[in-house]
Amino acid sequence: MAKTAAQLKASVMRRVWFIWGIRQVLNPVFLKVVLIAVFLWESRVNIYYAQVFRNAPPLFDLVRNIEFARSAVVHAAPSTIALMVGVMGVGAWLVTDIIRRKTEAWI
Asked: Which residue among 9, 58, 65, 97 is least crowded, i.e. fewest CB within 10 A of its CB?
């Protein structure tokens, strides 16, 4: 059965759009952002963020902020520390990709 030009064009374009979509989903920046989001989503089980912001000292009080962060790390569960280290690690990885201006690093 012979396809008309319009049917052939539609078939080819469907494949092109499918491949384009796969390339967007497999983009390194997209995957890193998803990984950060998963880490943060999982951290909400151990961290009550509203209470953290309520207890935090004023932003420009550097000494109290350092003491607050130290106290938070010392009293945190190991799983919480692992999640936060994961977020910081993937975030640093993402920033280095963007700074290097790799073609595949841009969304």
From this structure: 58
State pTM to two decimals: 0.58
* 52 Cβ contact list (under 8 Å, min separation 6): 72
- Per DSSP, helices labelled H in 1-107 are 5-25, 28-43, 49-55, 62-74, 78-100
Q: DSSP character for 76?
A: S
27-29-34-38 Cα dihedral, nearest 10 degrees: 140
Cα angle vertex 89, ends 88, 94, to 5°?
Answer: 95
pLDDT (0 to 100) of residue 104: 54
Residue 94: other Cβ atoms inside 10 A: 18
Where in the chain are the domains?
27-105
Judge contact between 93 and 32, C-beta under 8 A. Answer: yes
What's the whole-number mean pLDDT along residues 24-47? Answer: 82
